[in-house]
Recover the amino acids of this structure.
């Protein structure tokens, strides 16, 4: 038998040197985002004056937009109507049947210091309101 030639061992390939990793550049710091412009604060709405209780046949003073709570209305009711020659001072058109089914307030936009008179069926004289 003939001797077989021994297979030549494959020479191990030299391992490639690992490529050096490129040094990472320091990341630029994120620029702070510009703050959104602050919205101007809303002006506080003027609050309505508190409601006032008014005896039905009494003159009274109140600022515009004041809610009127009538007191002393007779059980038979009372009807408010416009006096001739005097502008109507309320937010509800005349006539107003009391007790009123809706809120009655002094109209907005009437000049302060002005007096407005109206008639009430349950009173013996005109009633006047002076705007503050």
């Amino acid at each position: 038998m003939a001797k077989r030639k021994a297979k030549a061992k494959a020479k191990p390939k030299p391992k490639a040197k690992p490529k050096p990793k490129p040094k990472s550049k320091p990341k630029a710091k994120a620029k702070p985002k510009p703050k959104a412009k602050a919205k101007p604060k809303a002006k506080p709405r003027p609050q309505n004056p508190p409601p006032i209780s008014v005896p039905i046949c009494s003159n009274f003073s109140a600022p515009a937009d004041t809610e009127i709570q009538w007191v002393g209305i007779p059980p038979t009711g009372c009807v408010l109507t416009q006096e001739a020659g005097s502008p109507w001072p309320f937010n509800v058109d005349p006539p107003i049947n009391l007790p009123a089914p809706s809120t009655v307030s002094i109209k907005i936009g009437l000049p302060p210091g002005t007096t407005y008179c109206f008639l009430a069926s349950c009173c013996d004289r005109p009633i006047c309101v002076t705007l503050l």
The mean pLDDT is 82. Residues 86 and 116 are 6 Å apart (CA to CA). The longest strand covers residues 115-120.
